[in-house]
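Homework help board

Subject: predicted structure for assignment chain

Our instructor gave us this sequence and asked us to write out the predicted structure in token form, then describe one feature. I got the tokens but I'm not sure how to describe them. Can anyone check?
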Amino acid sequence: MIRTMFSSVILFCALGIHAQDLKVIQLNVPDKTRGSAVMKALSDRQSAREYATKSLQPQDLSDLLWAANGVNRADGKRTAPSCRDFQDVEVYVILPEGAYLYDARAHALNPISAGDYRGAVAGSGQDFAKTAPLSIVLVADMTKYGNMSEGSKLMAAVDVGIVCQNINVACAGLGLATVPRASMNQAALKTALKLTDKHLLLMNNPIGYPKK
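My token output:
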């Protein structure tokens, strides 16, 4: 035991000395124009809590959902990676007339429930989310993991976070405004989206055109 502790101290000191020998690496100024529009979109990305009232153009909605978690290869894999390719993240779209589930393979919105559930997405104390012409709600389908362990929930949360970031960057590139959120009326949305106890409601993004 004493020998192990002594060895650990020696190793710690050696690592400490080595770290002190390292120098700061000053990085080049980011080239926000190289390659593609991705760098520009990352440069423009910001959270917005005010939105114009007009509905999204069909092409903007199509491009946004594909960027979020669409199919980008012939084998069915997605724009967002997922744990063991479980593809556990479900993308729900909340419009004034109803709630829809994004079918990535068909690239279509399948109706789930009629009605305006934007208030349920807003939850309490954040009424600005009600003003967005649509919201995206991200849900993890835990049946893909086969269990509800804390480790599986953590990986599902990571997968949802990746899709959420796709949404944020895509909005910046498409000239849309959004903000990532975790608060919402879970009970109301669970009913509206017809979810089971094997689904985790994790994040949402109110989305619209920037308010002038």
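Reply (TA_rk): Your tokens look well-formed. For the description, you could write something like this. The chain has one domain: 32-208. That's the kind of observation they're looking for.
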